Amino acid sequence: MSELKEFRLPDVGEGLTEADILRWHVRPGDRVVVNQIIVEIETAKAVVELPCPFEGVVAGLLVPEGTTADVGTPIISVDVSPGAVAADAAPGASAADQGASAVARTPAAAQIPSPPAEGAVEPGLHGSPAPKAERQAVLVGYGVKLGTTARRARKPRAQRPGPATEKPTGLNGATGAGHLVSGERPAVLAKPPVRKLAKDMSVDLSALAGTGPNGSITRDDVLSAAGPAGAGPAGGPAEAFAPGPAHLAPVAAVSREERIPIRGIRKHTAAAVTASAFTAPHVTEFLQIDMTETMAATDRLKSLPDFAEVRVSPLLFVAKALLVAAARQPMINSAWDEENQEIVVRHYVNLGIAAATERGLIVPNIKDAQALTLPALGRALNDLADTARAGKASPADLRGGTITITNVGVFGVDTGTPILTPGEAAILAFGRVRDAPWVHEGQLAVRKVTTLALSFDHRLIDGDVGSAALGDVGAMLTDPLRMLAWG
């Protein structure tokens, strides 16, 4: 007799109320073991891999991919009875043989946990392709830890197997290698608006290799597959797509609007910036500075042995300058405690770097950044950038920031008026560095110039303190030797 157990969507330690089901790694009929990775979910802050708390055979996937589920919702049922038989078990195979087969199919990293890996996430940077971040899944109730898990590569499917090779499949057509139900399509990872666009443009999603997070198919992937006919003016969607000769193929009209569900990181960001904008009275000050000496120092650092494995950029000097300024003007690293009616002055700096990712804006931070040497700070910034680009920021990476830098210069803009990260007193925007006429030593010359913008909470920081902090950062970037004198 079957004995079914349901695994309910857990709160992964952040007090969250819902999550999106991104990808199932199992299908009905699969045998699973304890701690085997079964599903990827996206919370409001990060992508998390969940392990199975049961051993048995998957009876059903209760929530489809791409669906938002509340915490506590049953998402999978497992038959844990001793006589449960996997769908692909050989006739007469023993339970032990089936279990061994399931372990063999389980990614090695899921079978043997790796030690937690330290590292932060850094956005706003451009560099070499990001290495795979390391994570380790744990059983529900024990929090989210870092470690390693193997991820299946997504490949375009040239053709579907014929009826002779088709076998039972799981929810949404999710299959292992060569496992398809006749008439069903291979599972693809794409959001509903992208699926609709592909349908309207007669693009076969199963034939595409996604370039989005976790191999998901993006709007750009669909438009690229549609070819020149799929791009309207300025690269926008076409009003119609006709594959093959225009006089033979039917034309499908494309919607003039696209609706994207507000959920995940975007939903969290919207709530956070709205609360920040209408809670903390923002003041923004601007300062244009000569960065020529800092740019020269950046080039010199690249040739030093201590920085041989560091992707050195001007952001490293901006980060160091802000850390020194926070030590000289501690109020910019403080917090407003409304409940206790206190101002909390922090004597440590968890340096946040705002990152624009495929899923939206995140602000991971480098813990105790004030204690790092310049080479160590550079490596931490690199790790932060790699993790953010890979979409691997963990909840721990995103908690506890005390002050933030947003590197808007990478987008080719001079500056902006940044909104404070909730719970912080200041945020520094670093604009693009460009050649501009500048009076240097009494002579007009072409110099490397940038614009800094510091937004701060006027409840905590008066104009003189904010101005002093911004002036300190500017002075250190104009003459990097000041970092040695003041730091």
Describe this structure in words.
There is one protein chain. This protein has 487 residues and is an alpha+beta fold. It folds into three domains: 144 residues, RNA polymerase II/Efflux pump adaptor protein, barrel-sandwich hybrid domain (OB fold (Dihydrolipoamide Acetyltransferase, E2P)), CATH 2.40.50.100; 83 residues, Irregular (Dihydrolipoamide Transferase); 223 residues, Chloramphenicol acetyltransferase-like domain (Chloramphenicol Acetyltransferase, 2-Layer Sandwich). Helix content is 24%, strand content 21%. The chain is built from eleven helices and 21 strands. The strands form six sheets. Strands 11, 14, 17, 18, 19, 20 and 21 form a seven-stranded mixed sheet that branches. A four-stranded antiparallel sheet has the order 1-8-6-3. It has a four-stranded antiparallel sheet with strand order 5-4-2-7, with no helix packed on it. A hairpin with a 2-residue loop joins strand 15 and strand 16. Helix 7 packs across helix 10. The longest helix is centred in the middle third of the chain and has 16 residues. The chain is elongated, with a radius of gyration of 26 Å. The termini are far apart.
Number of helices: 11
* CATH fold type of the largest domain: Chloramphenicol Acetyltransferase
CATH-level-2 architecture of the largest domain: 2-Layer Sandwich
- The count of DSSP E runs of length 2 or more, i.e. the number of strands, is 21
Q: Portion of residues in helices?
A: 10-25%
Please write the CATH class name of the largest domain.
Answer: Alpha Beta
Describe the sheet with the most strands.
7 strands, mixed
What is the domain total for the residues? Answer: 3
